[in-house]
Write a structure and sequence with these properties.
With 328 residues, this protein is mainly alpha-helical. It folds into 2 domains: 149 residues, no CATH class; 159 residues, no CATH class. It is 90% helix and 0% strand. The chain is globular, with a radius of gyration of 24 Å. The two termini are 33 Å apart. It comes from Propioniciclava flava.
């Protein structure tokens, strides 16, 4: 009966994987935003008012980011569609490409696939499937935002409920360990916000210096969005910005790629280790392994929650398992 019950619970968790991930991610985001709420409460503001201020600020930032990105995205898509025939003609004039195209008809197949919408069919199952995928992403983002605000508003009560689950004799120890886990999770999320802000600010300043001022705000928002994705996010952002830069001039594109490659090294070996070493106390190799494993298992949400989860596990290992083994 115990084995069947455990199997049933695992099957239920597997079926509810997306819901569980949204809940855990929302809790982690709430712990990351909690220092901002406590900053207002320490200055006499009620917690409800403090949560409202932080929530309105967060929503305003999201709206401003969408307002900055959507016009650029529309402009770049229209420019790509208008210049697509010229790109194909340039490829046909290349002798090597022309020989390959004569044998395999690559350009004609690519043109037919793009103009017929076959790529949409392959990726999303048609226009309806693409619409459903977009609605699912928006719905997941909305639910995550609502759960984050709910956790943020009732976080003290949630912590007290967790503390009361422990026996009275061990409650002080459990309170200390749970408080340290919450502090490390919140420290990681706060540190991540700082890393993202530095990346977006550096990109904004650089793009204005190289003459991409009309796109600087939107591209900085793109950099900020992908900076939340560990390991692969900065590279994807670099490719997107490089496409826009190369559309203006080859020199600007090369300089942009060099800048982002250099900044990625500085970010990986100087900025992030200094920030996360103080907040989560996790060795560098474990950070890489955790981010890769979480991304492979659960996608972007898994990559986000993997590092604070490993930090919490290391805390339990150091504070509970090692002392118990020493006493044995």
């Amino acid at each position: 009966m115990g084995g069947l019950l455990a199997f049933g619970m695992l099957a239920a968790l597997s079926a509810l994987q997306s819901v569980v991930l949204m809940g855990v991610l929302s809790l982690f985001l709430a712990l990351g935003l909690n220092p901002a709420v406590e900053w207002f409460t320490r200055r006499g503001a009620p917690r409800g008012l403090a949560v409202a201020i932080v929530a309105l600020t967060l929503v305003a930032l999201l709206v401003l980011g969408a307002w900055a990105v959507l016009p650029l995205l529309t402009e770049q898509v229209n420019a790509l569609v208008l210049s697509f025939p010229a790109y194909l003609q340039g490829l046909r004039e290349n002798p090597s490409v022309a020989d390959l195209d004569a044998q395999f008809q690559l350009i004609n197949r690519a043109s037919q696939a793009l103009t017929s919408g076959a790529w949409v069919e392959g990726m999303f199952g048609g226009i309806l499937g693409a619409g459903v995928a977009i609605v699912n992403v928006l719905f997941s983002a909305f639910v995550t935002l609502v759960l984050t605000l709910w956790f943020l508003a009732f976080l003290p009560g949630i912590k007290n409920t967790i503390y009361q689950l422990a026996p009275a004799s061990r409650r002080p120890r459990v309170r200390y360990l749970a408080g340290e886990v919450f502090r490390r999770i919140g420290g990681y999320m706060s540190g991540l916000f700082l890393v993202v802000s530095l990346a977006a600010g550096s990109a904004f300043i650089f793009l204005n210096l190289v003459g991409l001022g009309s796109y600087s705000l939107a591209l900085a928002v793109v950099v900020a969005g992908f900076a939340f994705i560990p390991l692969v996010g900065p590279t994807i952002a670099m490719l997107i910005v490089a496409v826009v830069a190369f559309s203006t001039s080859v020199t600007t594109g090369v300089i942009t790629v060099v800048f982002f490659l250099v900044y990625q090294q500085i970010d990986a070996y100087l900025i992030q280790p200094r920030i996360f070493q103080r907040s989560v106390n996790v060795p560098g190799p474990l950070i890489v392994i955790a981010a890769l494993s979480g991304g492979i298992l659960f996608g972007i949400p898994g990559a986000l929650i993997a590092i604070p989860t490993v930090a919490s596990a290391l805390l339990i290992y150091r504070e509970v398992l090692i002392p118990a083994l020493d006493r044995a």
